[in-house]
Design a protein that fits this description.
Pfam families: Phage_int_SAM_4 (PF13495), Phage_integrase (PF00589)
Domain Core-binding (CB): 17-94
CATH architecture of the largest domain: Orthogonal Bundle
Helix content: 40-55%
Largest sheet: 3 strands, antiparallel
CATH topology of the largest domain: hpI Integrase, Chain A
Number of strands: 5
Family: Belongs to the 'phage' integrase family.
CATH class of the largest domain: Mainly Alpha
Structural class: mainly alpha
Shape: globular
Distance between the termini: 62 Å
Radius of gyration: 23 Å
Strand order of the largest sheet: 1-2-3
GO molecular function, one term: DNA binding
Strand content: under 5%
Number of domains: 2
Number of helices: 14
Domain Tyr recombinase: 112-328
Length: 333
């Protein structure tokens, strides 16, 4: 069996540049790159930049992580994120894998039930939204996909014939399918027709390529300009890709939808800390309330473990009705 040689970053680069080079080689997301670099910088500054990370190890990492838990009172998930960043640094950049002896003071993990809106509240929020943001919010509530999964949808991921949405490379690198709500289909089809016009204008201007994941750009040289690969929710204007330095049209920023949902919640007079992710929580809870099998819901949500899905049983109402898509039900006559 052939053993692949591990990637070795350029030794002539500065440490953070080596980190970025390695992250990009392994196709980590830009958000992960930013987060990992921030944690590595905090780790270095914690020891006042007196020692290079290659001259430190398990003892120093344990000290740093314990400080996060005891003095900065970070959440357990934040502490794990910091650990993941440092494990990556030593394993993949410095090529000095850590052993399993790290035992920092652990942050307390608090399990809180998710914030969930009633069906009436969801409808009120959606009714206070308009345009593309309303379409995206309805899609998230009607299919249970995550915010970034919605934003990263490609045109080929929407199957009007089957009434499905294909989520590619979701959380954990998994692919899955979910609902395409009937009430959204016509509006989404019209929206995609407008996207096709924008794409044709980009092509006429000498642009029109889109970012392709992993090595697809090399494997399919013309795919980047094909309409099927374009984002369903493209940005208003083209921009320079910070990695490739190519001018192209990326997807919209998540902040736009986040602000729109927050404004709609305020206008609805709902006294809950509801966000875009609350729509996904509400989808899951309402599906359980209307009789969906929890294993089916697990698949729709893309949860690796059914225990993650079971948290919604603690916030669901006890009256169970027949299974029906929650967004379609909102607009029944």
């Amino acid at each position: 069996m052939e053993i692949k040689k591990k990637f070795t970053p350029n030794p002539n680069l500065k440490l953070l540049d080596q980190v970025r080079e390695t992250l990009r080689y392994y196709h980590y997301a830009r958000s992960t790159e930013k987060t990992y670099c921030q944690w590595i910088i905090r780790y270095i500054h914690f020891f006042e930049k007196k020692v290079h990370p290659r001259d430190m190890g398990e003892k120093e990492i344990e000290h740093f992580l314990s400080h996060l838990a005891t003095h900065e009172k970070v959440a357990a998930s934040t502490q794990r994120q910091a650990l993941n960043a440092l494990v990556f640094l030593y394993r993949d950049v410095l090529l000095k894998p850590l052993d399993n002896s790290i035992a920092p003071v652990r942050s307390k993990s608090k399990k809180r039930p998710p914030t969930v809106l009633t069906e009436k509240e969801v409808k009120s929020v959606l009714d206070h939204m308009s345009g593309t943001h309303m379409l995206m919010a309805r899609l998230i509530y009607g299919s249970g996909i995550r915010l970034m999964e919605c934003i990263r949808l490609r045109i080929q991921d929407v199957d009007f014939g089957q009434g499905q949405i294909y989520v590619r490379d979701g959380k954990g690198g998994k692919d899955r399918t979910s609902y395409l709500p009937k009430i959204v289909a016509d509006d989404l089809r019209q929206h995609i027709e407008r996207v096709k016009i924008i794409h044709q204008q980009d092509l006429d201007d000498g642009f029109g390529s889109v970012y392709l994941p992993n090595a697809l750009a090399k494997k399919y040289k013309n795919a980047a300009k094909e309409i099927v690969w374009q984002y369903v929710f493209p940005a208003r204007s083209r921009s320079i890709d910070p990695r490739s330095k190519i001018e192209r049209r990326h997807h919209v920023l998540e902040s736009g939808l986040q602000k729109a949902v927050k404004t709609a919640v305020t206008k609805s007079g709902i006294d809950k800390r509801a966000t875009v992710h609350t729509l996904r929580h509400s989808f899951a809870t309402h599906m359980l309330e209307h009789g969906v099998n929890i294993r089916v819901l697990q698949e729709l949500l893309g949860h690796a473990n059914v225990k993650t899905t079971e948290i919604y049983t603690h916030v669901m109402r006890t009256d169970i009705h027949r299974l029906q898509n929650p967004l379609d039900r909102l607009y029944e006559k």
